Amino acid sequence: MVTRKRSRSARRKDAQAALAQVTQYPAFIKRRVPVYNLLCEEELHQIEAHVDWILSDIGMEFRGDAEALRLFKDAGASVTGERVQFDKGHVRELCSTAPSTFEMYSRNPQRTLTFGADNVIFAPAYGPPFVSDLEGGRRYGTMADFENFVKLTQLTPWLHHQSGTLCEPVDVPVNKRHLDMVYAHMRYGDKPFMGGVTAPERAEDSIEMAQLMFGADYMADHCVIQGNINVNSPLVFDDVMSGALRVYAAANQGLVISPFILGGAMSPVTMPAAIAQAHAEAMVGIALAQLVTPGCPVVYGNFLTTMDLKTGAPTFGTPESVLAAQAIGQLARRLDIPFRCGGHYTASKVADAQAMQESADSMMAGLQAGANFIFQAAGWLEGGLTMGYEKFMLDVDHCGQLQRYLGGLSIDANQLGAHAFTEAGIGNNFLGTGHTMANFRAANHITDLADNTAFEHWNEAGSKDSEQRANERFKAELQRYKAPPIDPAVDEALLDFMARKKASMADAWY
Question: Which of 109, 234, 324, 408 is most exposed by smallest CB count within 10 Å?
Fold first, then answer.
């Protein structure tokens, strides 16, 4: 059979069409690859039965929160002092009003997120007191660092949510820094974000600032801010966390409720026991939110990893922690609640081979587990103690690759490329075909930081490794940053609120 090559003018038109394409990045990822089910039905029943035993025979404590205890008692739980115990299946029933999906809105309507179903959302690290870069090394975070990470998050299409405490700005008093952090999220980014949770009154300030941005009436039935609530594992909520939880729930705003477990310290050392404990803790937190406001939007959170039993240091990307993530993902899906899992976790202090191995394994475990919200997706170093500038850029680059992976394969006439075969014929390469020219931009994901050049070119350019390239990239990104527009009246109202709140109290540094 004689094949006919397409004319030069036809190929030129294909190339021009390709060059005219403008890449549109979605607000979040639509998963098109399947999740992994580790446990069989019998094994899931075994764990759920053990969860019921923990909740009925052991129970959980709510320390210093009389209102939480009252809510559980009125709902039919057994309350003795600060301990709450539940009949079999009771907590699962209380969780049943939590929505399976919900929208989270931003001041930029194009950034609206949908939590749950087959949707995946990436957000950067949360909580490190230190930051690091190649020039400055490891140091305490400042408000300037916090603002930088909001800006870097705003610039990348591979992060969809701004997270919350991107680093602790220790140059601002503890009792006032939540105001500056929430304002930075509002002023320097236009993606969804989290507010303060380190005291109930700081949660209230965060809600009030959100009302100034969005309006109280709008917030009554729109989720625009979230609180990240950690259980004081094992089996304890203190009044700070449960109090902040109740503030967000009362405002019908979002909550991410996550046990914080290192197996062998905050749970038994064996993973099935730790998994059962984590499931019990997450469900009780979700249940409390639903008792405050039925239908309150919640995310079932998970932070369960291993530890070095010789030193007590947390370890990440281990086989046991990967298996635990996959099992917990199955349990969360049985509740039909959006699921949050780990991100680019590592115990390494720098962005080295250890960091990348642990981070890649941890991140993939969350994706395989079916996570809807990948928290800690960029910047995490030193077990969460440090937010690394170079690590942030390397993680973001990997997030772009993972977004492409989650999109799966599209099978259609263009993807099958029949006319590429007929144009190239047998024994010829495909580089010059119209099909290649029409698809070269989108056919393969191109990373920003990988160096795929010849050795000679790399050597002449300075023999830079990944960390050095990432260092250059974050600086260049900050140089090109432009703040998203904000209503001047809203900005003035936020600044006035912050000034009045700060003037009302003396600085406190602990």
Answer: 109
Report the candidate in 260, 304, 281, 298 with the shortest Cα–Cα distance to residue 127: 260
Instruction: Calculate helix-pair angle for 177-188, 488-503, nearest 10 degrees.
Output: 170
SS3 261: strand
CATH of the domain at 396: 3.20.20.480
Q: Is residue 378 part of a domain?
A: yes
- DSSP character string of 427-493: T--STTSHHHHHHHHHHS---SS---S-HHHHHHTT---HHHHHHHHHHHHHHH--PPP--HHHHHH
Instruction: Please answer whether residues 63 and 236 qualify as being in contact, where contact means their C-beta atoms are separated by less than 8 angstroms.
Output: yes
- Got the DSSP string for 72-118? HHHTT-EEETTEEE--TTHHHHHGGGS-SEEEE--SSGGG-EEEETT
> What tens digit of pLDDT does each residue of 68-100 get?
999 999 999 999 999 999 999 999 999 999 999
Looking at the structure of the chain, the number of domains it has is: 1
- The structure's pTM equals 0.93
**Looking at per-residue confidence, does 310 or 193 come out higher?**
193
Expressed as residue numbers, the domain containing 147 is 1-8+27-408+449-510
User: pLDDT (tens digit, 9 = 90+) per residue, 444-470?
Assistant: 999 989 999 999 999 999 999 999 999
